[in-house]
Amino acid sequence: MQRSRLLRQMDVALGKYPCDLLLRDATYLDVFSLRWITTDIAVCDGHVVAVDRGLKANQEISVKGKSIVPGFIDAHVHVESSMLVPGNFQKAVLPRGTTTAICDPHELANVQGVSGIEYFLKASEQLELDLRVMLSSCVPATDFETNGAGHLAASALTPLRRHHKALGLAEVMNVPGVLQGDTEVWDKLDAFSDGVIDGHCPLLRGSALSAYALAGISSCHESTQLDEAAEKLSKGLAVWIREGSVAKDLNVLAPLLTVASSAAVGFCTDDRNPLDIATEGHLDFLIRGAIRLGVPKEAAYRAASWSVARHYGLKRVGAIAPGYRADLVILGDAETCAVDEVIVGGKRLGDCDLPSASIDGFGNSIRAKAPAPEALQGPQGRVHVIVVRDGRILTDRLVLDSLAKGVARLSVLERYGKGSPPANAYVQGFGENFRGAIASSVGHDSHNLIVVGTDTRDMAMALECLVQSGGGYCLMQDGIEIGSLPLPLGGLMSAHDAPHVQIELAKLRMASKQMGCELKEPFLQLAFLSLPVIPTLKLTDKGLVDVDAFKLIDVRAA
Amino acid sequence: MQRSRLLRQMDVALGKYPCDLLLRDATYLDVFSLRWITTDIAVCDGHVVAVDRGLKANQEISVKGKSIVPGFIDAHVHVESSMLVPGNFQKAVLPRGTTTAICDPHELANVQGVSGIEYFLKASEQLELDLRVMLSSCVPATDFETNGAGHLAASALTPLRRHHKALGLAEVMNVPGVLQGDTEVWDKLDAFSDGVIDGHCPLLRGSALSAYALAGISSCHESTQLDEAAEKLSKGLAVWIREGSVAKDLNVLAPLLTVASSAAVGFCTDDRNPLDIATEGHLDFLIRGAIRLGVPKEAAYRAASWSVARHYGLKRVGAIAPGYRADLVILGDAETCAVDEVIVGGKRLGDCDLPSASIDGFGNSIRAKAPAPEALQGPQGRVHVIVVRDGRILTDRLVLDSLAKGVARLSVLERYGKGSPPANAYVQGFGENFRGAIASSVGHDSHNLIVVGTDTRDMAMALECLVQSGGGYCLMQDGIEIGSLPLPLGGLMSAHDAPHVQIELAKLRMASKQMGCELKEPFLQLAFLSLPVIPTLKLTDKGLVDVDAFKLIDVRAA
Q1: pLDDT, position A316
Q2: Which of A434, B55, B193, B370 has the CA that lies 20 to 30 A from B138?
Q3: Which tens digit of pLDDT belongs to each residue from B179-206?
Q4: B496 φψ region: left (φ > 0), alpha (ψ -120 to 50), beta (else)
Q5: φ, ψ for residue A457 (rounded to 5)?
């Protein structure tokens, strides 16, 4: 099968038969040497078969004056954060040049366990996008939270490795577990020691970082400081520069990416919402930004393709060369990463039949009852307050009076049917004039219901709205719903396509501004306030977590 | 086992226990970013465990002012060409900084088949040198020759893959077989399609090169022209720059190796004799030369380590970082690659117990009878003459009179017991004043007996000497043996160690000069005159091979 395909492709390369598609007068990037080469690119059976002149073709495109680069590879993405199912996600990102995505279905896995991972593996079989699946290592992320899946052990993950789109072990967030030799963590590290293991170690430095790398972990996408990223790189962790909708590291990390380092650096979006994909872009946005910040464009395009493919051992993906999958981005201008056309798996994107996305098998995953407003009252007086900053998922912390200006209420409600009371605390940063409530069923990583607000009645009503819709976002002010976006698939994803979700999200953003919210992306930012693997202070359904000390603490300050 | 080792190493990295060895004040090359970093390097259980300050150690070395680089990796070597068994080979190359060698036991495999490959796999288990074995793909190299092993089919090779030191399929030299879909060749390509497959395609260009790359072949060490090498690189073949004892490509190819290309370029010695290893060096000689030729030293050291390790999927080899095998070269001067000390697998080379090499299991492999002098008479008159050039394994060709000045006789005698008569032809290039005979049982790749001479009696006597000694080299002049080096192990290797072989070889070189031979390295150069996969004209036991036309031709010119 493989042999007959290769022999046919060889004959095409040798000029015995016409190729399917010829890009005439292509100036393409040789990612191996970072030179631009002008020739013809011949495509057959989904692969580049030759980069030579004089071949026959069934279809030709003249690409004279354009720059051709390999399709972009997102080194680490939670597709769920696009709020789109994979079939709709590809429709949003393929036109941007992203042709491979290495996803971690960590969100859906927390909601529904192994079946959440299997959903993405199955979806990957039906996409034009080359979707690779890292198997979620930290479900739940910590013991400080309740998720829907319980603990996913090594024994649950290893059978999934057999799938041809499964790549390795996804981001290992439990840094203390790694360093202290935690059995459950090490069972997974052992099980995947012959494969690739992604890391997640924000702010980790020095000998603790050395010990973490020793464990066999070989990447990190959580660097937020340049010297931190350089240290990780030097200790053998590939650095994925992330620019999500909230976590934005490109400005700080761009100087790391040079011609010299480009083979060990990549780009990722991690969590990027569909509005940002539509308005700013996807990987193209990161590449454009990197070049604008002074990164040599050849280094940027290599980092966006070959470097990541090599790291993950993707065979014959990530370069324009004979035998490689014909994922090609035709650029009107390489300097600004202006995407004219995309060829994915040898097909012009416009000719691809991208079917409607499958949304089978989902029911309402919200099994909570909205609490009474009184139940959302936190302790009064001097309290530990989470301080959120625009565009960062790392939080700061302060001790303030619970009634201080700009301090809002924050509650997390367990949603998997345990019936626990909400955990209540405080947050600063949504704005001094913020008034009302914003609730979300997206609450990393266990995806309990999280609500920020100034009025417990609005907060309770917003939670009730989520319970009814099966999840999503809801904005309440003075007892009136002023915006909502249902995400009924696992409480994370919409059944609709990107344009629909983008419009709804744009409306929500405007509504949040009208409520006095000062954060540009309040929804994902809210969603990260419950993630206890990112410093420094977070709130889960079990209470307030001091991430640095890695323990639950009282909301009341001593 | 692995887990307990890693947990112990982590504790050492975290400072709980002392490490085995600490390199204090090390300035080492971070091959990921090509920066030099000054810190301490901590080694435990054979691995680097930390690159951090302040760790305890059982033993410390101050390396202030030195440069530390990862141990060098020879990307492609036939150990047999060193005339040393693996245990003696490591004693010759480890002090030069070569700590990993990717070998192809192609020579011994041609002589004795699968057992020749198994000999190297078994040897690899007992070495400090990290010896990896590519499984020989072309035994015999062509059908134009008789070897001792017969045809090694895919089914003979695949069981060998299970050995932990077996890496993939060695150099696929049968280019026409690849391009024409030859079943035997493609059975091997198929069997190794999930692994790494080395190439060998001298002078191949254009769409034929594209087709060759399509077959899944991912490296070539046979480039002799800069634009040829650049084209191979762009078509997805990693380029190994070779500097052997005969084939010397460094001067021409050095400009290919830049910071930009360094992740896809490496160095190899292919065939290097022990005298050159002793007098010039091994990988250190190539690195030194590359830097002298203008290659940025950081790019040279990366190409000599990480790039090759990544290409072959060697996990945690080829860099100085936590978890990597502690193969470290301490340089007095990085610019001249002056090796002060070598640490291999965490041990200082001086402390290593390098046992005497095993030479069990070999008998006399020469099963030929020396022919009578008359049998070595070639056709007279206008003949096709092989033209050999100093330092090149590619030959030229001329039509000359058999008695022309500077034309010597060349014969190849099948040595595996078939009793065939010798094949006789002519060669130019050994020198106008060359007189006598040089015979060798090293005759790539089938290792029949090859003899060059001006006098058929000397030639017959030299062959008789090889038959008696079990192989090696023999120099005869006027009926007197003026030098010989027995290589009784497969007719390829000595049982003695490097210093002994070096001295004997030096004596042979001097003797060959006294015979009027003008070639600096006549022995390996002679050995390559029977290799019909290297253009353009070669002599095997079956006759004269026109390599370009890939057919046997008459010695008499039309």
Answers
A1: 96
A2: B370
A3: 999 999 999 999 999 999 999 999 999 9
A4: beta
A5: -70, -45
Cβ neighbours of B32 in A, within 8 Å: 233-234, 236, 238, 261, 263-264
Give the C-alpha separation, B209 to A323, whole Å.
Answer: 12
SS3 A244: coil
Nearest to B502 by CA among B82, B80, B74, B77: B82
Q: Which two tokens stand for residue A432?
A: 């001094």
Please say if the pLDDT value at position A1 is more than 70: no
**Where residue A11 falls among pLDDT bands split at 50, 70, 90?**
very high
B323 and A181 within 8 Å at the Cβ level: the answer is: no
| Interface mutation vs chain A, best among B1, B9, B22, B33, most A CBs within 10 Å | B33
Would you state the structure tokens that stand for residue B364, as one six-digit string? 């006399």
Match 């198929």 to its residue by tokens: B190
Chain A residue numbers with beta carbons less than 8 Å from the beta carbon of B321 are 213, 234-236
Give the best residue of A32, A219, A311, A320 to mutate against chain B (max B CB count within 10 A).
Answer: A32
What single string gives the DSSP state of each residue in A102-133? EE--HHHHHHHTHHHHHHHHHHHTT-SSEEEE
Q: Label residue A363 by pLDDT band (50, 70, 90).
A: confident
Q: What whole-number distance in Å separates Cα of residue A508 and Cα of residue A514?
A: 10
Summarize pLDDT for B434-450 with one digit per residue, the tens: 999 999 999 999 999 99
**What are the two backbone dihedrals, phi and then psi, of residue B159, each rounded to the nearest 5 degrees?**
-60, -25
Q: Contact, A68 vs A28, CB < 8 A?
A: yes
> What is the rounded average pLDDT of the residues B402-423?
96
**pLDDT (average), residues A430-443:** 97
C-alpha–C-alpha distance, residues B87 and B123, integer Å: 7
Task: Answer whether B359's CB lies under 8 Å from B489's CB.
Answer: yes
Q: How wide is the angle at C-alpha B456 spanned by C-alphas B450 and B461, nearest 5°?
A: 70
Q: Residue B261 and residue A34: Cβ atoms within 8 Å?
A: yes
Q: How far is B504 from chain A (nearest CA, A)?
A: 43
Scanning every residue of chain B, which has its alpha carbon at the shortest distance from the alpha carbon of A216?
Answer: B323
Q: Dump pLDDT digits (tens) for B128-165.
A: 999 999 999 999 988 899 999 899 999 999 999 999 99
Under 8 Å CB-to-CB from A162, ≥6 apart: which residues?
A: none
Place of tokens 């290769």: A6
Q: What does the mean pLDDT of chain A come to?
A: 96
Nearest to B235 among A47, A211, A322 (CB): A322
pTM of the model: 0.95
CB A131 within 8 A of CB A165: yes
In A196-327, where does DSSP find H-type helix?
206-214, 226-234, 250-253, 274-279, 283-292, 297-303, 306-311
CA distance B254 to B226: 8
Q: Give the one of B3, B33, B323 whose C-beta lies nearest to A190's C-beta.
A: B3
The interface predicted TM-score (ipTM) is 0.94
Q: Which residues contact B193 (CB under 8 A, 6 or more apart)?
A: A2, B216
Enter the DSSP assignment of A237. P
Residue (of A316, A286, A319) closest to A28 by Cα position = A319
Q: What is the pLDDT of residue A355?
A: 82
According to DSSP, the β-strands at B98-103 and B72-77 are: parallel
- Write out the two tokens for B474: 């023999």
Task: Dig out the tokens for A124 from the structure.
Answer: 């990957």
Question: A500 Cβ partners below 8 Å, 6+ apart?
Answer: A494
Return the closest-CA partner of residue A76 out of A23, A134, A128. Answer: A134
Residues A52, A56, A59, A62, Cα dihedral to 10°: 40
Mean pLDDT of chain B: 96
Cβ(B252)–Cβ(A359) below 8 Å = no
Give strand pairing partners of A29. A36
Q: Do B219 and B75 meet the contact criterion of CB atoms below 8 Å apart? A: yes
